[in-house]
Each structure stands twice: as C-alpha cells, then as structure tokens.
Amino acid sequence: MEFDSRIFIAGHRGMVGSAVGRELRSRGYRDLIERTSGELNLTQQADVEAFFQAEKPEVVVLAAAKVGGILANSQNLTEFLYQNLMIEMNVIRAAATHGVGRLLFLGSSCIYPKLAPQPLKEEYLLTGSLESTNEAYAIAKIAGLKLTEYYNREHGRAFISAMPSNLYGPGDNYHPDHSHVIPGLIRRFHEAKIGGQSEVRVWGTGAPLREFLHVDDLARACVFLLENYNQSQFLNVGSGEEISIKDLAQLIAEVVGYQGRISFDPGKPDGTPRKVMDSSKIRALGWSPKVLLKDGLKQAYLDFTSRIRDQA
Ligand code: GDP
Fold first, then answer.
1. How many C-beta atoms lie closer than 10 Å to residue 57's C-beta?
2. Based on the number of CB atoms within 10 Å of its own CB, is 2 exposed (0-12), middle (13-18) or buried (19 or more)?
3. How many CB atoms lie within 10 A of CB 272?
4. What distance in Å separates the CA atoms of residue 184 and residue 177, rounded to the nearest whole number?
5. pLDDT at 143
6. What is the mean pLDDT of residues 113-124?
7. Cα 298 from Cα 142, distance rounded (Å)
8. % the chain with pLDDT above 70
C-alpha cells in the first residue's frame, strides 16, 4: 500500500469507517474515496459494479454494515442477514473483478459459537451453535470472512479479515434502544443525571462478561494489517480485558457522574454469557491496544455530550 494508493473506505461515516479514515489520513494516506449510502447503495450489485469501474480503487476497507445492539439484532433478523450479505458479496466480488490489490474485511467477535471455550481462538470458528440474539449478523459476517479467505487462498489475492471485539468510541450510535451497551448506558445515565432520576435499569442480569475495544485501537490495527499482513487466516483484534455488565454499568455511572441506584432488568436478553477473544496472533505481529477502558469511556462521554449539544 502506497501513500498515494486509491483507498475506498466503505462505510466511512460509521464509527469504524470514520476511525479508519482518521488513522489513514494521520499516517499520510491521501487518496481516500468515500461515498455516503445516499450516493452509493452497497446492497445494489449494479451500482457497486459501476462505482468500481469508474473509480478504480486499489485498496478497499469494508467497514460498511447494518449494525445494532442486542435488541436491534434480535428483532430484525431478516434485514441483518440480507443487507449485510448483499453489501459483503457485492463489494468483495467487485473488488476482486476490478483488480483491487488489497482488501480488509471487518467482522465481529459474535461469529464464534455461543459456548466456545474462552478466550476465543480463531480456530473455534464453526465448532458449535451461534448465540441466537445475533445469529443473522454472525452468519453474514462468517460468509464475508469466508469469501475474503477464499479469494486469498484460491486466487492469491491480498484479501484479509479482522474480527474486533465489542467496540465503542467517537461516532457511536447513542439510540436508546438500538445501540450497543456502552452508548446505550451513557445516554441513560446522562439523562437520569440531568433529570434527577433515582434509578437506572440496565438490561439483563448484569452477569455477562464482555471485552471492549476502543475504535481508535481497532483503526490502528486495521492500518497495521493493511501494511503488514497478507494471509488468508482472519485475525482477532481485542483488548484482552473483560468486564461484567454490572461493573461496566458502575464505571459508566461514575464517568457520567450519575449517583442514583443501578438496577437490572432480567426481562431483557443477556446474550452470550462470555465473549473474550484470544488476540495473541495479532499481538505477536506487533499490534497492541493503547486506550484503557476508563479513559476511553471519558472520551466517549465527551463525544456524546458534544453531539447532543450540536443537535440542540
Ligand atoms: P452483544 O455483545 O451482542 O450482546 O452486544 P450489546 O452491546 O448489545 O449488549 C451487551 C450486554 O449488555 C448484553 O448482555 C445486554 O443485555 C447488556 N446491556 C445492558 N444494558 C444495555 C443497554 O442499554 N443496551 C444494550 N445494547 N445492551 C445492554
């Protein structure tokens, strides 16, 4: 990858795509191609083909996806499977047929079986049943990483994949119901603080364990892999630190400055009990995370407050 390579970031307005764009620019890559979903609908094969034909990107970062937290995922299985599969198949195929030299596909730690041994190693893929709350999303991500791997193995293309753990950071979706746990709780604790509420209900039992990675750490991993890694084997990208949802809720309340009670709502799904990845392969290559969870949460809270100020 050269500093003047034409790099298409699919999904550049999302949390991951925008972080990868910031990282690429800060490292001197200057020819980034970006399209909003209004300008280019990635679920439409003919449009994607025409775009690759006209723009001739040399490198592709596939960070476009239909994403959402546990409720959004479990209530829209059809769209999570269909839209993600279409985006992945169209973009990876067009990249292959239009001579793209390097492609990085972004997946998710939810590709692993619900009850796989922990920490999750890359080789546990497809050794058991998936967690039902995000099965559709996981199946689409598995298909995408497999198509990437097959182009690499069968056709010698430098197409690679990274599987990040649960992400958070600037540019997150703070929707009260459709978001992931960190942005969802930042919003709820903030509103409870401002509204003087004495109690916040956190979904599920509080017992599940999750591993969180700041999106800037993922973006550094993405650029590192684009510069240094060619193999067909996808790689886990995680912080290695896990925390229960209960402890996470307490930490977010502290960062936000909410001092009321925290209770739990077991009527909402817990999802998979534990999801911590073994990221020793990418660490052995030389990448490691830099952002500590508490620092990252402070930064995320600032991002949230600046967004609601902008909307006001
Ligand atoms: P998951 O890793 O796919 O389950 O992603 P999520 O970030 O949506 O949820 C992680 C865990 O946090 C699950 O056990 C949820 O039940 C729990 N959780 C607690 N409160 C919330 C909330 O307000 N929003 C979301 N999305 N999850 C929550």
1. 25
2. exposed
3. 22
4. 7
5. 98
6. 96
7. 33
8. 100
The rounded distance, in Å, linking the Cα atoms of 13 and 80 is 19
What are the pLDDT digits (tens) for 17-31? 999 999 999 999 999
Answer yes or no: is pLDDT of 311 > 90: no
Q: Could you say which of 112, 137, 151, 168 is catalytic? A: 137
Mutate to test the pocket of ligand 1, among 109, 203, 252 (most ligand atoms within 8 A of CB): 203
Asked if the model's pLDDT at residue 69 lies above 90, the reply is no
> What is the DSSP code (8-state) at residue 99?
T
* C-alpha closest to that of 281 among 170, 143, 122, 155: 122
Enter the tokens of residue 6.
Answer: 């034409």
180's tokens: 């992931």
Sequence-distant (6+) residues with CB within 8 A of 152 are 158, 159, 160, 230, 231, 232
Cβ neighbour number for residue 288 with a 10 Å cutoff: 13
168 is catalytic: no
Q: Which two tokens stand for residue 227?
A: 């510069």
- Domains of the chain listed by start with CATH number: 7-311 (3.40.50.720)
pLDDT digits 0-9 by tens, 188-209? 999 999 999 999 999 999 999 9
In the reported structure, the alpha carbon of residue 22 is separated from the centroid of ligand 1 by a whole-number distance in angstroms of: 27
Cα 149 off chain centre by: 19
Q: Which helix (H) or strand (E) holds 24?
A: helix 15-26
Total-model pTM: 0.96
Ligand 1 site residues (CB inside 6 A) read: 69-70, 110, 134, 166, 179-181, 184-185, 202-204, 208, 210, 245, 268-271, 275
